Amino acid sequence: MRCRILGAGVQDGAGRMGCDMGPSALRAAGLISALHELGHTVSDMGAVTPAAAMRPMAHGNMALKALPEIVAWTEAIAEAAYTASADAMPIFLGGDHSLSAGSVSGIARRAAETGRPLFVLWLDAHPDFHTLETTASGNLHGVPLAYAAGQQGFEGYFPKLAAPVDPGRICTLGLRSVDPAEREALMRAGVTIHDMRAIDEHGIAPLLRAFLERVAAENGMLHVSLDVDFLDPSIAPAVGTTVPGGATFREAHLAMEMLHDAGLVTSLDLVELNPFLDERGRTAILLVDLTASLMGRRIMDRPTRSH
After folding, report:
1. Is the pLDDT of residue 299 over 80?
2. pLDDT-derived band at 46, boundaries 50, 70, 90
3. Residue 95, preceding bond cis, omega within 30 degrees?
4. Domain residues of the chain, as ranges?
5. Given the DSSP bridges, would you call strands 41-47 and 118-123 parallel, antiparallel or unpaired?
6. CA end-to-end distance (rounded Å), the chain
7. Where in the sequence numbering do the catalytic residues fall?
8. pTM to 2 decimals?
9. Burial 273-287 (b: 16+ CB within 10 A, else e)
10. Residue 298: partners with Cβ closer than 8 Å, 6 or more residues away
């Protein structure tokens, strides 16, 4: 496969500093060499750079933080995503999860032009389905999925969507921290919701398999957005929004292996890595290993590591 690596060190959407170092940490952990070893052609496109946030934006929700900056990042990342997805698989290195407002909307524009539906697999402890009105924290890494799905409340602030993602083609997997406003919005929109209780009761494989069968049946493109806090903090501490009870090492690798077997993934986000909170790079290394599993590494190919 032909891959394009795009760094987007946005940290304005998170509640603490450090996510801007995520792209460098993933490169240092060997992401590009891992992809090369699996036989993929890799082009490192460097860093996405937003235009300066020129105009202040007034909004009724006084809690909102860095709205002009996140809008500028969204515009830049969306354009980069659209361009990079022309004939390759873009892999976005974050940066906080506000990155995905741009990556998903840019990929959705590409999918619409090719005449294929875009599906989104959201691997996260949080659904990030707030609007500008409903977020209480004001941290805009909590809104990207709602924006990309065309929910109301972003008009006049965020870029107009060329092709909103059908909420019925979105699957959230691993949720365990959902605000009441998000819960109501998710149910109303028809998003597929698999929280950690569902994983505990049924296992991750049947839940993911059912979603992948839907993608295949519609000849869809699949965007995967992997947040560090999808993983249990005992194995992935480098995130500012740790929530106990996340995916285990094997659950996460199984999901990646199933995604590779399905052959449906056309783009990928790796977000919310905060190296300032890591332990000797263990979270960055785990993200690289998970990406390698998604891109074709099998258990029998996996090198021995000391942890």
Report:
1. no
2. very high
3. yes
4. 2-301
5. unpaired
6. 30
7. 97, 124, 126, 128, 141, 227, 229, 272
8. 0.96
9. bbbebbeebbbbbbb
10. 257
pLDDT value, residue 54: 63
Helix 249-262 vs helix 204-217: crossing angle, to nearest 10? 20
* Residue linked to tokens 């407002």: 101
Cβ neighbours around 260 below 10 Å, total: 18
Task: Give the separation between CA 242 and CA 228, rounded to whole angstroms.
Answer: 9
Which residue reads 């590494």 in tokens? 297
| Cα distance between residue 285 and residue 288, in whole Å | 5
Give me the residue label for tokens 């990207």: 144
Task: Check residue 58 and give its pLDDT.
Answer: 86
CB 243 within 8 A of CB 177: yes
Instruction: Report CA dihedral (283, 286, 288, 291) to the nearest 10 degrees.
Output: -130
The first and second tokens of residue 10, run together, are: 């946005």
Nearest to 229 by CA among 127, 100, 91: 127
User: Class assignment of domain 2-301?
Assistant: alpha beta
Burial of 298 by CB count in 10 Å (0-12 exposed, 13-18 middle, 19+ buried)?
exposed
Q: In the beta sheet, which residues pair with residue 90?
A: 4
pLDDT tens-place string over residues 226-259: 999 999 999 999 999 999 999 999 999 999 999 9
Contacts of 278 by beta carbon, 8 Å cutoff, 6+ apart: 25, 237, 238, 284
Neighbouring CB atoms inside 10 A of 57's CB total: 14
Q: What are the pLDDT digits (tens) for 187-217?
A: 999 999 999 999 999 999 999 999 999 999 9
Question: 135 near 61, Cβ under 8 Å?
Answer: yes
Tokens coding 232: 């249990």
R_g over Cα of the chain:
18
